[in-house]
Model the fold of this input.
Amino acid sequence: MVEKDAALSRRVALMATALGSFLTPFMGAAVNLALPDIGREWGLGVISLGWVASVFLLAAAMVLLPSGRLADMYGRKKVFTIGVVVYTIFSLLSALSPGPLWLYAFRALQGVGGAMIFGTAAAILTSIFPPNERGKALGLNAAAVYLGLATGPFLGGVLVQHLGWRSVFWINAPLGLVILLLLTKVEGEWAEAEKEKFDYLGSLLSGLSLCALMYGFSALPRSLGGYLLAAGLCVGLGFVIWESRIPAPVLNLRLFRQSLTFAFSNLAALINYSATYAVTFFLSLYLQEVRGLSPQHAGFILLSQPVVMTLGSPIAGWLSDRIEPRIIASLGMTLTTLGLFFLAFGLGLHTSTLQIVGILLLMGLGFALFASPNTNAVMSSVAPRFRAVASSVLAIMRLVGQTFSMGIAMLILGLFVGEVSLGTHLSWPFVQAARVAFLCFACLCFVGIFASLARGRIHGED
Done:
């Protein structure tokens, strides 16, 4: 009877975390389809629209480490629940935004809630599932992420076309309520570090450093960007010194020194997201503004990549319980690199839809093979009391990578296009910018293959 109750609690926890993991990528993908309408309503240019996505990532990255540490101390389910509430509230307020500054502010606060969700989801699953089932559970959770990415472009396009851009924010409310109901059926809090102290100064330094680095990178090539990057590096050095001297740091730096698997898996994640996140941003604008497709049609084309990711992730996660994750993840990184090279040299003013879909399918398979085995490697390489922190570190790698990806995108767009309002003649300069960006991403992803191969073994370590 006890085992049956535990199995039920595991299934409900998987459903709740999967829905939570679905929310943020769904919103990100749907918002990309809403960008042209937002730009036309408020007269925003391409670079200003990039901040609708970037401000969410920036805010989330700043609070990820503290929220992960608090989850290890006070309960992972508790922090996850608060995150769902915050995310839902500010999704609704985003839909009511009277102007771009309000939307930026609400998206930032939505990012705080999002950080609490995806910074603890993997930790909850790692805590509740035994090692021989962990990869499968994380694979199903990854499938939920990619289902969000899959339905985001298509459903987002339909919503924007028929109900306006604000509808992509309204849709979060019922999903948030379902998650909160499921969480009432999940037993346990998993707070192995509950007797340790919270590191306030380290949390502040980590947030300031990440904020300066991420915003500074996006502000290049202006001098402000250079100053912020220098400040971020100085504060980051202070953070490292402080964390190495206190008994209960917000981030235990020994995790990186003691485990090659943890260090290189996080590096591989940082590189992978840096090389892939802005692809949807570019292709969404390309399909709508260069090719003249409707949001619904563009969303349907972009659907091809996350569909493969959704179907492939549970299989990849299952395989990572049996085969070393570095082998599967490295193969995935290789396929993604090939897809980016094909985009860099194949995208033009009249590239066939079939060719774009084929490249997206290849990249989708690559990302499916990379993500869940990489997550399994990270979460299996740390002691139980560090699981939420490890989940947060991995999420930071994802968010910093995504922000760097958008920073590279906006830097290249600034050089080739400038702050030009949508609806003007962008076609060839925009395509040139996209091709240069895809080439940069492909080279970066190629380097990531070697970081992925460098990690150690995890099987036999639990």
